[in-house]
Specification:
Low-confidence stretches: 118-130
Structural class: mainly beta
Helix content: under 10%
Shape: globular
Number of strands: 8
Radius of gyration: 15 Å
Number of helices: 2
Distance between the termini: 16 Å
């Protein structure tokens, strides 16, 4: 699979080949059909440096993703392989008090993960950030 990756702070991203992920318990692999790189990605590329985020490069850009469930880890419920999904949660964990009232930009646990949302709009599972 290919991914647009920021290899180091304050640099241009590179399209690189990545190994296909295998889901762990409670995780979902989504085959991405479309991904958006937006203003947040530009900030990460141009303005952030070491220690400014809870993670460091290299990492994959583009947090506005939609696709299909490709593989399910043990214990995942509410999703099926082939089901269309959108990945929601650029920064938010989805479970803290701020995320639950819709202000995930002020998340109390920003490294907490992403949520897969089915085409019906139903949050079905969480996948920790890697």
């Amino acid at each position: 699979m290919r991914a647009l990756r920021l290899q180091e702070w304050k640099s241009e991203p590179a399209l690189v080949d990545m190994p296909e992920p295998t889901p762990g318990p409670g995780q979902v692999v989504v085959r991405i059909g479309a991904a958006g790189a937006c203003h947040s990605d530009l900030h990460l590329m141009d303005e952030f440096g070491a220690g400014s985020m809870p993670w460091n490069p290299p990492f994959t850009l583009g947090h506005e993703n939609a696709g299909w469930v490709h593989a399910l880890g043990h214990g995942v419920t509410g999703l099926a392989v082939g089901q269309p999904v959108a990945v929601y949660g650029a920064w938010g964990c989805g479970v803290c008090a701020r995320c639950r009232v819709g202000v995930d930009t002020y998340c109390e646990n920003p490294a907490g993960g992403h949520r897969a949302v089915s085409a019906a709009g139903q949050a079905a599972s969480r996948r920790p950030r890697t």
